[in-house]
């Protein structure tokens, strides 16, 4: 399993739940969660294959910042 971690500016639980559904639609076999208590509003995606560019695109198309956390 690969774990990719992203820094976001998502601040509302309802929004995070909607975005998780969208990520799961593209990557149905993955585990996805937000850490809303972290200062970087971390998005974690765990899957056999993770395409960071696609996840970034999903969040950006919804008006949110998203970048791979190094």
Structure description:
This protein has 70 residues and is an alpha+beta fold. It has one domain (2-68): Alpha-Beta Plaits (2-Layer Sandwich), CATH 3.30.70.100. It is built from two helices and four strands. The protein has helices spanning 13-26, 52-61, and strands at residues 2-8, 31-35, 42-47, 66-68. A four-stranded antiparallel beta sheet has the order 2-3-1-4, with helices on one face. The longest helix has 14 residues, at 13-26. The protein is globular and about 25 Å long. It starts with a strand and ends with a strand. The mean pLDDT is 97. This is HMA domain-containing protein. It comes from Mucilaginibacter ximonensis.
CATH class: Alpha Beta
Q: What is the second-level CATH architecture? A: 2-Layer Sandwich
Beta fraction of the residues? 25-35%
The whole-number mean of residue pLDDT values reads 97
Q: Biggest sheet, open or closed, and with what strands and sense? A: 4 strands, antiparallel
The number of E-state strands comes to: 4
Outline of the structure:
This protein is α+β, with helices and mostly antiparallel strands and 70 residues long.
Topology (SSEs and partners):
Layout: E1 2-8, H1 13-26, E2 31-35, E3 42-47, H2 52-61, E4 66-68
What are the salient characteristics of this protein?
about 70 residues; alpha+beta; Alpha-Beta Plaits; 4-stranded antiparallel β-sheet; about 30% strand; globular; HMA domain-containing protein
């Amino acid at each position: 399993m690969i774990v990719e971690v992203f820094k976001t500016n998502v601040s509302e639980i309802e929004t995070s739940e909607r975005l998780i559904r969208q990520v799961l639609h593209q990557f149905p076999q993955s585990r996805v969660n937000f850490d809303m208590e972290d200062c970087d509003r971390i998005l974690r995606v765990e899957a056999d294959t993770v395409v960071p560019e696609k996840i970034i695109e999903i969040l950006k198309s919804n008006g949110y910042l998203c970048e791979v956390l190094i």
